[in-house]
Write a structure and sequence with these properties.
This protein has helices at about 1-30, 40-50, 55-80, 80-105, 110-115, 120-140. It is mostly helical. The protein has one domain (about 20-25, about 45-140).
Length: about 140
C-alpha cells in the first residue's frame, strides 16, 4: 500500500512539473506584457483570452501530457498496481485542472478540451507503465 501511495505522489509531482514546464514553453515563446501581475485575476483572465492560438494549444496539451507522464512514472514505480496508480494520478490531476479552469477564464473550447484529457491520458500512462513492467518482468525471467 505504501508503494502505491508513494507512486501516486511521485506521479503527481511529475505531472505538475511537466505541466509547469510545458506552460513555461508557451510563456517563453509568447511572454506576458510588461507590468503583468500574475496575482491579479483580471489580468490573468485577459492574458489567457488574448494568448495566440498556438500558445493555447501548447497549454491545453500540457493538461494531457502532464497526467500521462505522471501516470507512466507512478505506474512504473508501483510495479503491480499500474492502473490503480494511474487512476489516482488522473483523478487528482482532473480535480486540479477543474480548479484551474474555474479560477481562470479560458475560451470554451479550451475548457472542454482541458477538462476532457487528464483522466484518459493518465489511463493511457497506466497502460504504458504496465507494458514497461511486463517487458521488464519478461526480460528478468529470460535472463
Amino acid at each position: 500500500m505504501w508503494r502505491a501511495f508513494v507512486s501516486i505522489v511521485a506521479g503527481l509531482m511529475t505531472a505538475g512539473l511537466a505541466i509547469a514546464g510545458i506552460e513555461s514553453i508557451a510563456q517563453a515563446l509568447w511572454p506576458p506584457p510588461e507590468g503583468f501581475d500574475p496575482t491579479d485575476p483580471d489580468q490573468l483572465d485577459a492574458l489567457v483570452m488574448a494568448m495566440p492560438m498556438a500558445a493555447k494549444l501548447i497549454v491545453t496539451a500540457g493538461f494531457g501530457l502532464g497526467p500521462l507522464l505522471g501516470a507512466v512514472l507512478g505506474g512504473y514505480l508501483s510495479q503491480e498496481r499500474e492502473l490503480r496508480v494511474a487512476v489516482g494520478v488522473g483523478v487528482v490531476m482532473e480535480g486540479m485542472t477543474l480548479l484551474n479552469l474555474s479560477a481562470i477564464a479560458h475560451p470554451v473550447w479550451m475548457t472542454v478540451a482541458a477538462a476532457a484529457v487528464p483522466l484518459p491520458c493518465a489511463l493511457a500512462g497506466g497502460w504504458i507503465a504496465r507494458r514497461l513492467n511486463q517487458r521488464e518482468d519478461g526480460a528478468g525471467a529470460a535472463a
